[in-house]
Amino acid sequence: MDAGLLAMACSGPFQDLESLLNGKPAVYTLGSSARQPPHLYAVTVGGESLLHLVAAVYGDSEDSTKKASLLYDKAPSLLFVQNSQGDTPLHYAARAGNMRMVALLIDLANGEGINNAKGLLETQNKIHETALHEAVRSGNNDMVKLFMEENPQLARFPEQGTSPLYLAVLLENKIIAKTLYDLSGGLLSYFGPDGRNALHVAVQGSQDLMKMLLEWNDNLTLQGDKNGSTPLHFAVIGTLRQICSQLLIASPDALYQHDHNGSFPTHVAASVGATRVIADFLMKSPNCADLRDARGRTFLHVAVDRMDIGTVDYACRNISLSWILNMQDKDGNTALHLAIRKGSLRMFCSLLGNRQVQLNLKNEKGKTPLDTARHAIPKGIYVKGENEVRILKALKYVGAKRGIVHQGFLDEYDIDQARQEEIHIMSQVKEGTQSLCIGSVLIATVTFGATFTMPGGLRDDDETNAGSPILAGTFHFYAFIVANTLAFTLSVMATISFIFSGDPMVHLRTRKVLFIRAIPLLLISVSSMVVAFALGTYMMLAPIAPVSALAIFLILILILVYYSWGMTISRIVLFTALCKRKGKWYGIVWAWPCAFLLVVLILSSLLLLAFKLAQVSHTGGKVEPPAQPPTPFA
């Protein structure tokens, strides 16, 4: 298409376009093409005709409608031309929101007593959308009314693909959705892409639209998409409890409809951690608790597999669900088998604490939970405090049994496997040494520098004991020195251990022992450094701002709380589960108070050590209490 003709169709005056089409000179200079009528059927690279370009002009301009009428008079077939994407001029006009142009094109299509508008309105582009889709997308309800009044069956198109109603619901336009339904007499398409219907979208968006769709067609609740997922599956994914309840009221059978993977809504809820939704489902229909997916799993199996601790706790606390705790999937695994395999101490404790959970059930491989726990121990280097080790010890404590010993235990030791494990251990030691050794060296450097940069500074040369610390002789100073020295000593010991653990000349077994031994030394040295920093800060501020000094001291202690709290809680949770398993309910009463005391003991151990050594050095070993308060909290 000529560039000048293109410009005139888009933005030129009507009179110039008319003159050009009639072969007369125009104001716009077009060179030699101005002397001859242009080709009316010329198209752009995208296949747009002149009428496409005129129809796409934004706004209800009278000039653009006169151009469209002129082009139609010259070449009526342009009204039905589709571009490379399958769009007609009516698609373009609706997309631009040009109401006057849309009305004109429909009138032109009707012709003189011939109803050609129906065919034009039902024309679909390559993505199976009519001009009505563009009207819905533009949000112009008046244009939607015009289309539907002209062809009430238009909301049924396309038969496969995104319907206008689905698009309106997707855009959460309730007014247009109601217009489509009312003017079609309720006979319209609800479908969208990938087999979904409008209700699949509504449950994730507007609750009002969902209610309206259920009033129009409650059979939508049982329709699945290409994966078999119903609107209830979609609502569960969004953990929308109220919407799930309304869907079940409309169609209780939706709770028993699975997708192509065999997953029921309860399984989907467990996979996304929607514990409250599961509780609502079970209250509505308790028998849905034992529904199995394609792998034979209940919702409890799925919850364990997805590490949903809340759902596992709920199932173990609910007495009415005790009958599903020992159900086995197609591989024979119970929820306890899976929890052990995941290495989750919290889930394991929830199941272990329920006395209805059987400890010696075998899976298809003949493994009991104890066998699973043995195989779950990580290969290579591990510390005794890891969850897998605690789980194994707990199962042994409550008397769990092993499965049948098969011939595989008597086979010769696989040399290749042993070599692979050795390489893995060497890699662990190498990587761990490189990172942890840097930390231990930094602690040693900081504490070494703190020894010669004392809090409060040093005495001047003209004073007695020149060069000695100004705060020397006070109780808190000695406590600071003890804590700082302890941090320096332990960090140096950890550094030495890390150095030899990273030495390839040392035997691998020795390197492993040194590496494991250095970790607690490093942790204690960090704690001692925190105590030293807290004491140094307190000494500096206590004389002038005692309240601020105490506040800073307590804030720094939070570092130790952060370190010890998680470790203490995990131990107390395991202790509580063991008490429940053994029926020793009195132990549970004392569990949390003991946990609190244990945390206090951990926090105060380094402080007590520092203060005790400071007392000995300050008083020369005398039993009398120091003149200064023994703790910074005085």
UniProtKB/TrEMBL annotation:
It is a multi-pass membrane protein. It is found in: Membrane. The chain crosses the membrane at residues 436-455, 475-502, 514-538, 544-565, 585-611. The keyword Transmembrane applies. InterPro entries: Ankyrin_rpt, Ankyrin_rpt-contain_sf, PGG_dom. Residues 428-539 form the PGG domain. ANK repeats lie at residues 85-107, 331-364. PROSITE patterns: ANK_REP_REGION (PS50297), ANK_REPEAT (PS50088). GO terms for cellular component: membrane. The keyword Oxidoreductase does not apply. Gene3D superfamilies: Ankyrin repeat-containing domain. SMART domains: ANK. Keywords: ANK repeat, Membrane, Repeat, Transmembrane, Transmembrane helix. PANTHER family: PGG DOMAIN-CONTAINING PROTEIN, PROTEIN PHOSPHATASE 1 REGULATORY SUBUNIT. This is PGG domain-containing protein. It comes from Triticum aestivum (Wheat). The lineage of its organism: Eukaryota, Viridiplantae, Streptophyta, Embryophyta, Tracheophyta.
